[in-house]
Automatic annotation (TrEMBL):
Protein name: dTDP-4-dehydrorhamnose reductase
Record bears the keyword NADP: yes
Source species: Winogradskyella wandonensis
GO cellular component: cytosol
UniProt keyword annotation of NADP present: yes
EC number(s) reported in the record: 1.1.1.133
Pathway given in the UniProt record: Carbohydrate biosynthesis; dTDP-L-rhamnose biosynthesis
Entry-linked CDD domains: dTDP_HR_like_SDR_e
Keywords recorded for this protein, A-Z: NADP, Oxidoreductase
Gene Ontology biological process terms from the UniProt entry: dTDP-rhamnose biosynthetic process
Length: 289
C-alpha cells in the first residue's frame, strides 16, 4: 500500500484526485483541508507527519486569488512560499516524496514559443512570484520531489473560468473576453490522473515538469469553445487586455512545452478541446453553477 497525504482537500485539483480513489486501491489517501492541516503552521504539519508514515505528499494547498494577491502579498507569500517550505522540510525529515503544483505564471509571457523547464522564470505578479519562491524553497530542501507547472486549470469543481463564463452568460446578454493572452486550458481531471500515475508507478524521475492540455488559445477562444460545447447562446466580444482592467498583470503568452513529461514520464497531453469535451460529457457541470 502506498500512503499519500493530500493537502488542500477541497481545492478543485484535490477533489479531482478524490474522484480517482476508488480506481486506485493500491493507494491509501489521507485528504486534509486547511482546518485539518494548515500548511502555514509548522506545528500542524509536524503533528500530521508524526502521526502517519506517508510515502508521498501531494500539495494542492495554495493561495490562488491572483488579483487579490496584489493587495495581500504577505498572505500569498505565507501560503505559497513559507507554507511550501514547511511542507518540504517535513517531507525531508520524514523521507516523503513531495508532489507540488506550480504555475505558468512564473513566466513573464515575453516568449513567442512554448516555455520549457529550462527557460528563465520572471513572474510579473505577486501570485507568480510567491509560487516561484515556493519552487525555489523545494529545490533547496529536497532531492525527491516533482514540481508540476500547469496552466488555466478548470474542472467541475471550485471556481474556474468555465464556470464563471457560463454563469455570466446566464446573467448578461453580452460578454467581453480578452483575446490577447494566450495559453493552454487544462482539465484538472487530466492533471489528477498524471499525479496518481506518478504515485502508483512509483516514478523516480524527480524534477520540474510542465504539464497542460495540448494546444494554444486565448481566453476569448476558450470562451467561444465553451459556448459552442454547451450550446449556450450569448453575444461574445473579443477585446484586448488594455480594455479589461485587472489588479494583477497577466503574461501575454504562457503556453508550456510538455515534451519533457512526454519523454520522461511517458504521458502524452490531450488536446485542450478534448479536455473541455470530457468536462461536458463526463460531469454534470451545468447543474453546479
Ligand atoms: N486554478 C488555476 O487556473 C491554476 C493554474 C495553474 C496552477 N495552479 C495551481 O494548481 C494548484 C491547485 O489549484 P486549484 O485551482 O485546484 O486550487 P483552489 O481550488 O483555489 O484551492 C486552493 C486550496 O488551498 C487550500 N489552502 C489555502 N490556504 C491553505 C493553508 N494555509 N493550509 C492548507 N490548505 C490551504 C484551500 O483550502 P480552504 O478552502 O480550506 O482554505 C483550497 O482548498 C495550486 O497550487 C495552484 O497554484 C492553478
Amino acid at each position: 500500500m502506498i500512503s499519500v497525504l493530500v493537502t488542500g482537500k477541497d481545492s478543485q485539483l484535490g477533489l479531482c484526485i478524490r474522484d480517482l480513489q476508488d480506481s486506485h486501491t493500491e493507494i491509501l489517501f489521507d485528504f486534509k483541508n486547511s482546518k485539518e492541516l494548515d500548511i502555514t503552521s509548522e506545528q500542524s504539519i509536524a503533528k500530521t507527519f508524526e502521526a502517519n508514515a506517508y510515502d508521498y505528499c501531494v500539495n494542492c494547498a495554495a493561495y490562488t486569488a491572483v488579483d487579490k494577491a496584489e493587495t495581500e502579498p504577505e498572505k500569498a507569500k505565507l501560503i505559497n512560499t513559507i507554507g511550501v517550505k514547511n511542507l518540504a522540510l517535513a517531507c525531508k525529515n520524514h523521507g516523503v516524496v513531495l508532489i507540488h503544483i506550480s504555475t505558468d505564471f512564473v513566466f513573464d509571457g515575453k516568449k513567442k514559443t512554448p516555455y520549457t523547464e529550462e527557460d528563465l522564470t520572471n513572474p510579473i505578479n505577486v501570485y507568480g512570484k510567491t509560487k516561484r519562491d515556493g519552487e525555489i524553497e523545494i529545490d533547496r530542501v529536497l532531492d525527491r520531489y516533482f514540481i508540476i507547472r500547469t496552466s488555466w486549470l478548470y474542472s467541475q469543481y471550485g471556481n474556474n473560468f468555465v464556470k464563471t463564463i457560463l454563469r455570466l452568460a446566464e446573467e448578461k446578454d453580452e460578454i467581453n473576453v480578452v483575446d490577447d493572452q494566450l495559453g493552454s486550458p487544462t482539465n484538472a481531471n487530466n492533471l489528477a490522473e498524471l499525479i496518481v500515475k506518478l504515485i502508483s508507478t512509483k516514478n523516480k524521475a524527480y524534477g520540474i515538469y510542465h504539464f497542460s492540455d495540448k494546444g494554444t488559445t486565448s481566453w476569448y477562444g476558450f470562451a467561444r469553445e465553451i459556448f459552442s460545447r454547451s450550446g449556450v447562446k450569448v453575444q461574445l466580444n473579443n477585446i484586448t487586455s488594455s480594455g479589461f482592467y485587472t489588479a494583477a498583470k497577466r503574461p501575454k503568452y504562457s503556453v508550456l512545452d510538455t515534451s519533457k513529461i512526454s519523454k520522461e514520464i511517458g504521458l502524452i497531453s490531450k488536446d485542450w478541446k478534448d479536455g473541455l469535451k470530457r468536462l461536458f460529457f463526463q460531469t454534470n457541470i451545468s447543474s453546479d453553477l
